[in-house]
Amino acid sequence: MATPVQENLITSNKSYAANFDKGHLPLPPGKRYTVVTCMDARIDPAAAFGIDLGDAHVIRNAGASAKDALRSIVISQQLLQTQEVLLVKHTGCGMLTFQNSDATSIVEKNLGPEAVTAVKDQFGGDFLPFKNLEEQVKEDVAWLKENKAIGSNVTVSGWVYDVTTGKVKNV
């Protein structure tokens, strides 16, 4: 039996597919850029950042972490010819609200010590929280610019999206 969320996916997809006419779009993004942004449900990257289907790669993860997104960024650039990265973090981000020890404690409480071991094995137990939004944008941008896995010809910029106004500002 499908959950209500699954039923919504099925119903919505039927409607979408009935009018879908973009199957001809090529695999590489047409505008040759990548957006790294947060998985926060209050952000609609296509609407907020003017991204049409086929324009760009959109990589979403907790906190819009450059480190967490690196594998996808390298694939985007090296295999699919993107030439620019827009890193967009946002106000009110949950990653500002905890430390690694807090997340580890919750995982252990809810799932047990084996889950903590799995977290440590899979990503070193670093949930990549941060204390200052704009400073973290600057650090992530600098990290990408200095990273040897990112081409020196790739343009990288950092942004903050305000979840209360919908506006972005360059950092």
UniProtKB/TrEMBL annotation:
SUPFAM superfamilies in the cross-refs: beta-carbonic anhydrase, cab
Binding annotation for Zn(2+): 38, 40, 90, 93
The protein's name in its UniProt record: Carbonic anhydrase
A matching Pfam family: Pro_CA
Enzyme class: lyase
Catalytic reaction equation(s): hydrogencarbonate + H(+) = CO2 + H2O
Organism: Glarea lozoyensis (strain ATCC 20868 / MF5171)
UniProt record similarity statement: Belongs to the beta-class carbonic anhydrase family.
UniProt keyword annotations, A-Z: Lyase, Metal-binding, Zinc
Keyword Lyase: yes
EC number: 4.2.1.1
Keyword Nucleotide-binding: no
Superkingdom classification of source: Eukaryota
